[in-house]
Amino acid sequence: MQFMTTDPAQLLGRRETAVLEFKQSAKDRDAIGAVICAFANDLPSIGGGDLLIGVADNGEPTATIDTSDRELLTLTQFRDDGRILDGCSSFGGTRSGVKR
C-alpha cells in the first residue's frame, strides 16, 4: 500500500472554500451528494472542487475514519447509481460531474 507523502492541507488549505469541502464521514449520503452536485454545477466556473472525507469543519483530521468496505461502497455508489458522469477527483485527477 502506498501512502501520501504530502499533507493535503499543504496542497488545499485548512479552510472550506467554494472549491474545498470537508466532511467528517461519508455516512450522510444526502450531504455528500449535495457537495458533488454543487461542484458539478461549477457556478464560479473554476472547474469543480475537492471533497475531503475524514476532515472536520475546522480543517483538522478526524481521530478515526471508517475505511470499511461498507463505507467505501457508500462512496462508489455515487458513481455507480448513474448520477456521476466522470470519475471522482483525486489530487491532480479529473473533477466529478453529476447528471440532474
Write the layout of secondary structure elements.
Blueprint: H1 8-12, E1 20-23, H2 29-41, E2 50-53, H3 69-80
Parallel strand pairs: 1-2
What's a quick, concise take on this entry?
The chain contains 3 helices and 2 strands, in the order αβαβα.
Overview of this protein structure:
With 100 residues, this protein is α+β, with helices and mostly antiparallel strands. It has one domain. The chain contains 3 helices and 2 strands; from the N terminus they run αβαβα. The chain has helices at residues 8-12, 29-41, 69-80, and strands at residues 20-23, 50-53. Helix 2 (29-41) links the parallel strand 1 and strand 2 (50-53). The chain is globular, with a radius of gyration of 13 Å.
- Which residues sit in consecutive blocks of at least 5 with pLDDT less than 50? 87-100
Approximately how much beta-strand content do the residues carry? 5-15%
- The computed structural class is alpha+beta
Sheet having the most strands: 2 strands, parallel
